[in-house]
Amino acid sequence: MKKLPGFSFIAVCFAVFMFGLITIPVTAAICDGPPQSQSFILFSGGCDRSVPGLPCTQGFMFPAQPSVGGDFPSQYFLDFGDGSQPYYGQVDGVTHTYSRPGIFTLKYMAGTQCDFWISGTYLITIPAPANYSSPISFCVPVLPSSGFVGSPTSGVAPLTVQFTSTSRDADAYFWDFGDGGMSMAQNPRHTYRTPGSYPVSLAARDTCSGQVQSAIMNDYIAVNTPVTTLSLSSNPPGASVFIDNVIKGKTPLTLTDIAVGNHQITIIMDDYEEYTRKILVEATSPLTIAAVLTKSLPQPTTQKPVTGSIAITTIPSGAEVYIDDKPIGITPAIFPDLLPGNHRVTLTAKGYEDWSYIVSVGSDRMSAVNAELSAIKEITGSLAIITNPPGAEIFIDGDFKGVSPETVSDLSPGAHTVLVILKDYTNATANISVQEGQTQKYAVELKKVLEPSAIDLLLAAGAIVMIAGIALLVMFRKDPKNKMK
């Protein structure tokens, strides 16, 4: 197979990078989610040569598509699977030199500028050259210490925080910022765009030995909502004021906690037309609104029942709304024409627990629901087990889990005992700590059991027979002089 020239890989990476710079749309929906998909490409002429040789250098590319809203990937990660330091950078291509044969699990990832990531795995086989003798690999069993600081840790949204790792004896990092974002950089910078209180965790890893230690700080980042003052009046006064479908009081009214951004104002008063207006609140100056209400026209007498409505908002917005088990719309919104009485309101959103409550609706009245949905947290982790040679039986905490290489999922966070068994090889065991939502790796070289050959057994048996014969000869032999007596 023809070997790819050395400059080709760099040229391709540069072309892909430049193409991404040229085609980034300025109207992209920033921070809407991770990249849609990611490819993984191995360049020929590396470790797949027809005549195997070590060490060998392999080229990889792992480009990714933008998010649904057009947020382009801007950072990349690749764990080479052989215990060496992973790659983290802004280019979707890298080369790596393997110094020993085996089957290695590569983990590749791509993330947007908002730290939303997509990931995948790939098994690569590095063949052993002829007459290859495996060098003795040795990793000092060092347990990394994990720690970090951030600055600033509080402020108004959007809040950009610079994180710095204070970990020791580590060369790979995994940050969880608590808002759905994560990073593999040693000292990342992350922007929080939604007000709230966020935990931050850092898992520091020594890739050579596979040892991991985590540090977590609960409620470490406090993001506040920028607010300003909004004064409202109406003619006539005494009208009900709704801000984003949430009732705030009656006119005249001064609100000092209005978040900066777009809002919808609704002013309602009996016998007057509904006043609705969209406004943009800025932090630079207070805002004053004076509404002149228009008298409503007399309505013809009908036999239709007087209905009510429910104004529903959620954190986060965009939840599906079910009223009495019927889909009715997306939050935030006002849902009118509801018969007076009790109604079951159910709210669902991907990645959040369902919310359900009985809401009472009155005739010609609006009820308000403000719900904060609870995120569903992942509680399990995975363990990728690789043995050389492959085909070993895997037991975790005494339970059979398959044959290597194998990735065992749905493991509870914490320490687990791993035992691998392969005929004619010495058993291997280890205690591995599994982290929530992560895949740990355990790679082991199995040692051959030494057994005596048939020739050795025959020689040993012959020696035993010879020694026994000599002993008998000495025992029964008589001295001639003793016979004459």
Largest sheet: 5 strands, mixed
Q: For the largest beta sheet, what order do the strands appear in spatially?
A: 9-15-14-11-12
Mean pLDDT: 85
The gross shape turns out to be elongated
Low-pLDDT ranges: 1-28
Q: DSSP helix count?
A: 3
Overall number of strands: 36
User: Beta-sheet strand percentage?
Assistant: over 45%
Percent of residues in helices: under 10%
The second-level CATH architecture of the domain at 1-133 is Sandwich
Class by alpha and beta content: mainly beta
Task: Name the CATH superfamily classification of the domain at 1-133.
Answer: Immunoglobulins
Key traits:
485 residues, mainly beta, Immunoglobulin-like, five-stranded mixed beta sheet, four-stranded antiparallel beta sheet, 3 helices, disordered N terminus
Question: What's this entry about, in short?
Answer:
The chain is mainly beta and about 475 residues long. It contains 3 helices and 36 strands. Among the domains are: about 1-135, Immunoglobulins (Immunoglobulin-like, Sandwich); about 305-375, Immunoglobulins (Immunoglobulin-like); about 455-485, no CATH class.
List the helices and strands and how they pair.
Elements (H helix, E strand, L loop, with lengths): L5 H18 L17 E2 L13 E6 L11 E7 L7 E3 L3 E6 L3 E11 L4 E10 L21 E4 L2 E3 L2 E7 L6 E5 L5 E2 L5 E4 L3 E11 L4 E14 L2 E9 L4 E4 L2 E5 L2 E7 L1 E8 L6 E7 L5 E6 L15 E8 L4 E4 L2 E5 L2 E6 L2 E8 L6 E7 L4 E7 L8 E8 L4 E4 L2 E5 L2 E6 L2 E8 L6 E7 L4 E7 L8 H23 L3 H5 L1
Parallel strand pairs: 9-15, 16-22, 23-29, 30-36
Antiparallel strand pairs: 1-2, 2-5, 3-4, 3-6, 6-7, 8-10, 10-13, 11-12, 11-14, 14-15, 16-19, 17-18, 17-20, 20-21, 23-26, 24-25, 24-27, 27-28, 30-33, 31-32, 31-34, 34-35
